[in-house]
Write a structure and sequence with these properties.
Layout (H helix, E strand, L loop, with lengths): L6 E4 L3 E2 L5 E5 L2 E5 L7 E10 L2 E11 L25 H18 L9 E4 L9 E8 L5 E6 L6 E3 L8 H10 L2 H4 L7 E6 L6 E6 L5 H13 L3 E8 L2 E6 L3 E5 L2 E5 L12 H9 L4 E7 L7 H5 L2 E7 L3 H13 L5 E4 L3 H7 L7 E4 L8 H10 L3 E6 L2 H12 L3 E9 L9 E8 L3
Parallel strand pairs: 4-6, 7-22, 12-13, 17-18, 17-20, 18-19, 20-21
Antiparallel strand pairs: 1-5, 2-3, 3-4, 5-6, 8-9, 8-11, 9-10, 11-12, 13-14, 15-16, 21-23, 22-23
Helix pairs in contact: 1-10, 8-9
């Protein structure tokens, strides 16, 4: 049963991963959104779990120097952004502190070295969006994002972190003649290319009927920049136009089909690829959790052989297509899970292993197998500091040393943190 709401004052002392500020009140831990460290605020609790009160601000009684006026009218209600009320450089400072503290607290890694930070334009950076479809206060169809801490829809007309092309698509979808025909769907996925000119639209939820296919054909003809409309219901999928988006990063162009993962921030992808592959070379590299080949392709230019592992079928097929299009015959692709691949691996000792796992991380079973192969160097790309810190701590206890840590601010205005850790095998 939810705790009865109560109002009280707090003065948080730090931000924690997840976007909230940490404070204490009457011996209880409080996590408050929308409040900054050093501020005195009146907050209202809305949930209690495991001895922690979750709260939201009622009034800011004393403002922190880093507080700014959020430019987005939906901020504080929409759950997409967490830090629009905090100066950009202060966001970077706190994210760096959170990353360092997470390494220490979860990974037991006391990293005192520099954490190099990669930054770019803090607005209009997203090349992908997942719009939710629901009802507005009048009962009509509405498009938007979920409210923070709930599944209530916040109808939106514009998003400050979406690319210009995606915002144009949102505006077109919000035209009444279009929006009123979308009520049978529960989600609309948008994906823009690297030049922010072409967009793929995926409608998810309704059955693939003649009405649905007619809608897709109509949208393709009227939506500016749209190259394809995909209708998806469970395992069924129907396509009008092109299903794959083409995305160029550096010298390579990647085909990305519906369902295949690709980075959602358009400004720092090249920097990420460079950070993983620069200065590398040798006989054999492993690209684990390879996706469509973001790292595999440039690594294949530097190594005699690259073995790329991807369990998701659509991504593995794209990876195979991308390698062939790039003329990379030394890139071998395995469509299986990473643990099975490592268990059966019988090749030469790898010079390099690149890991870019999902939020759940690689985990001990995978890392134990990897440590047994003993690659000379490891590049670990993490989108979730807690699981990244856990995995790095494991590797440091299996004969590796941490050489450097870099942070990529892929998602300004949010709490999300992308990082790369470079590890080398200790001399045995």
């Amino acid at each position: 049963m939810p705790a009865a709401p109560m109002t009280f004052e707090i003065t948080p002392h730090k931000l924690v991963y997840g976007g909230a500020a940490l404070a204490y009140s009457q011996g209880r831990t409080v996590l408050a959104s929308g409040v900054l460290p050093g501020e005195r605020a009146e907050v209202e609790s809305f949930r209690a779990a495991k001895g922690v009160l979750r709260a939201r601000p009622v009034r800011i009684l004393s403002k922190a120097p880093g507080r700014v006026e959020p430019p987005c009218p939906y901020f504080g209600v929409c759950g997409g952004c967490h830090y629009q009320h905090l100066k950009g450089q202060d966001q970077i400072t706190w994210k760096t502190k959170i990353l360092r503290e997470t390494l220490r607290r979860i990974g037991k890694i006391s990293w005192e070295g520099q954490i190099a930070v990669h930054q770019a334009e803090p607005w209009h950076y997203r090349n992908q969006a997942e719009l939710k479809v629901g009802r507005n206060s009048s009962g009509g169809t509405a498009l938007g994002f979920f409210e923070a801490e709930s599944h209530r829809l916040v109808p939106i007309e514009h998003c400050a972190i979406l690319s210009p092309r995606l915002n144009g698509t949102v505006a077109q979808l919000n035209e009444f003649a279009v929006r009123s025909r979308l009520g049978d769907y529960n989600e609309i996925q948008l994906f823009a290319d690297d030049r922010d000119e072409r967009v793929r639209i995926l409608l998810r939820g309704a059955a693939v009927t003649r009405q649905a296919t007619d809608l897709a054909e109509d949208l393709l003809s009227r939506m500016g920049g749209a190259i394809g409309i995909v209708v998806e219901a469970g395992e069924s999928r129907w396509l009008a136009g092109e299903g794959a988006i083409r995305y160029r990063v550096g010298e390579f162009e990647y085909r990305i089909s519906p369902g295949a993962f690709f980075q959602a921030s358009r400004f720092l992808i090249s920097d990420l690829v460079t950070a993983v592959s620069a200065g590398e070379g040798g006989q054999v590299a492993l690209d684990l959790y390879a996706g469509v080949g973001l790292f595999s392709l440039p690594l294949a230019k530097r190594f005699s052989e690259v073995r790329a592992v991807e369990s998701q079928m659509a991504a593995a097929e794209d990876l195979r297509w991308n390698a062939q299009a790039a003329g990379l015959g030394n890139l071998r692709i395995s469509n299986q899970n990473v643990q099975d691949f490592l268990r059966r691996y019988a090749g030469p000792e790898p010079d390099l292993a690149v890991l870019d796992p999902p939020r759940a991380g690689a985990g001990p079973p995978v890392l134990e197998r990897l440590a047994m192969l003993a690659p000379r160097r490891i590049r670990y790309v993490s989108c979730h500091p807690p699981t990244g810190a856990r995995d790095l701590g494991f590797l440091l206890h299996r004969g590796y040393r941490l050489e450097s840590v870099e942070m990529f601010d892929f998602f300004p205005q949010t709490y999300h943190i992308e990082s790369i850790a470079r590890l080398a095998r200790s001399i045995r």
